[in-house]
Amino acid sequence: MSVSQYRADDGVAVIEMDNPPVNGLGHELRQEIVAGIDRANGDEAIRAIVLIGGPKAFSGGADIREFNTPKATAEPHLNTVIEVIEESAKPVIAAISGACMGGGLELALGCHYRVALADAQIALPEVKLGLLPGGGGTQRFPRVVGVETALNMIVSGTIVPADKLKDTALFDEIADGDLAAAATAFARKAADKGGAHPRVRDLPLTLDNPDGFFGFARNTVRAAAGPFPAPLNCLEAVAAGVYASTFDKGLAEERRLFAELIESDESKALRHAFFGERAAAKIPDVPSDTPTRDIRKAAVIGAGTMGGGITMNFLNAGIPVTILEMKQEALDKGLATVRKNYERSMKKGRLTEAQVEERMGLITPTLEYADLGDADIVIEAVFEDMDVKKQVFETLDEVMKEGAILATNTSTLDVDKIAAFTKRPQDVVGTHFFSPANVMRLLEVVRGEKTAKDVLATIMTLAKKIRKVAVVSGVCDGFIGNRMLNKYVAEAMAAVHEGATPDQIDKAVEKWGLAMGPFRMGDLAGNDVMWYIRKRHYEENPDMPRQVIADRLCEQGRFGQKTGKGWYDYPDGRTPKVDPEVTKLIEDYRKEAGIEPRKIPDAEIVERLIFALVNEGARILEEGIAQRASDIDMVYLNGYGFPLHRGGPMLYADTVGLFKVVRRMRRFAENPFTDSEFWRPAPLLVKLSGEGKTLTGSA
Ligand code: NAD
Fold this sequence. Notes:
- This protein has an 8-stranded mixed β-sheet, with helices on both faces. Strands 1-2-3-5-7-10 form a 6-stranded mixed β-sheet, with helices on both faces. A 4-stranded mixed β-sheet has the order 4-6-8-9.
- The two termini are 31 Å apart.
- By secondary structure, it is of the alpha/beta class.
- It has 3 domains: 4-260, 2-enoyl-CoA Hydratase, Chain A, domain 1, CATH 3.90.226; 298-473, Rossmann fold (3-Layer(aba) Sandwich), CATH 3.40.50.720; 481-691, N-(1-d-carboxylethyl)-l-norvaline Dehydrogenase, domain 2 (Orthogonal Bundle).
- It is built from 28 helices and 20 strands.
């Protein structure tokens, strides 16, 4: 199948790239561009060549569908295509509209001339995937826009409109209106000029005081890059161009630095996150052409912490929300919080006053169920209590119009049971938002046994509209995220019993990269929430190890920030301080239990906590609760502050190597403080490790 068209237009060959959606430079397109250049050069009637894309994109760069396939590296590579263009005896003019990014911009830089529309989007965004522009971008781009501008754009990946760069040598002409006509006219003039056609590679690359410039830039970039190596490699590649005696030497250094990155764990993690997000949107047995239900009006039950945040998501997307509470007071309080949040954004300059009013105007508060009836979706965010949920869903079943989606925000309760309170379980689904719901990107979509396919398809579409990363989870206690978290917290508690302090544990995992350690997180979310769940678990499973210290902490009412004290003391309400009373509580317990505390190394703490996520994650995967390993990672990256550069617990396990992970788990099982039953490695891990395979399919 052809992904471009070739036509002759009165002495000018026009090669029009046509590889939707963004003219990704896949193998076929690269071949066809070379073929087009050769054909034009072999045709005496042709004097110049125009390479053009469509209104949406000249080219968005590499074809992501080709990533990790042999085609990605098959000849002609992008560098070969550029060589062919540079060597063309007839001038090649890039006609640029829409996205001109990454490999697309590098392709344009290989052309002899560039004509662009003012609003074309120019960027070298490779750094966002932990890479650098490896098609000569770090060498050619500084030659046309200057080292400083190029460096800023390459290190940040920022998109800049062509208009902003119109005074640089990047463009020979900024056209308006008919780009193809402007480019062909330009091509004829270029052909008339004759002689050798300019090549960006031949332009000088000079800089006053390069040592001073790069010395300063290196410090700035290093500080901003955190754990990611790509920004610094981008800088080194640009610097190499400045210092190299020839263009080709700079290009070789760019290639070396690129190869370093493509193998780095950090780039693998970023690419995993990028593809993982796209994969999460797909449900194997719900094809992408499944019809969806229209969502024009929403309703939310409960205007508490979650209800208010959930409502904001809809308002932000322009969808009106009717919000129901039991008492006027609660309603007023909930609405006031929503307004306060918007006003905070207004003060930061993110919203205008008119926008705040417009959004608030989309809310209809009510105390009457009858007012909800015509909503297309209703999301329940009332207390986490099955009896309350029962009463709410029985009422919804009576009042909601036919075809409305009935969603629950429950964090732990059985969605199938909730669905059974209605006569329309096919319309019931879990939409588990994360707190604060207007900020956190994750949405766990809990698929009940009877949830209809079109309901799922609708929720996945809606999630995109309200800018969430939706991940499908089957029904189980805690779904994907909290079920894993419970095991991680239990391991943290085992380590405290054994000799670690909450402060040591928090600091160890935070240093490793987690946004917040388990004890600070407990204090923030409310230790009572986990306590409540624990008590239910103790009842269901009397043999399960007790978290005595955590239970005693809660018995003392130390629920966390909301009570001013938890694992830490919060004298100013926010900043945690180690509290001698908690230290004493821990030490007293150890004495009572005859425990001789052991100093546990930080590295062991991190392994135990992270591998607890891995083991439970693997079980979730083998039970089919999660559809794929990367879904679990998307949950942790977007909902639990897992460090992006490690890619999520599943990719991290692959990076360590499953053989090592399994061996460690068996060792942890021997520790009398841990739950040895839990630490039996999940059969899936044992199997994959034995086969030399990975969880995520990564190499
Ligand atoms: P919350 O206590 O802050 O708010 C609950 C609200 O529901 C209250 O305003 C209450 O007045 C109202 N309510 C109770 N019963 C009602 C009824 N029958 N009709 C109408 N309104 C009623 O609780 P929350 O933290 O917002 O949690 C709500 C739900 O979201 C729970 O199922 C919880 O498990 C889940 N959840 C909470 C979090 C979190 O971090 N807080 C995160 C994810 C999910």
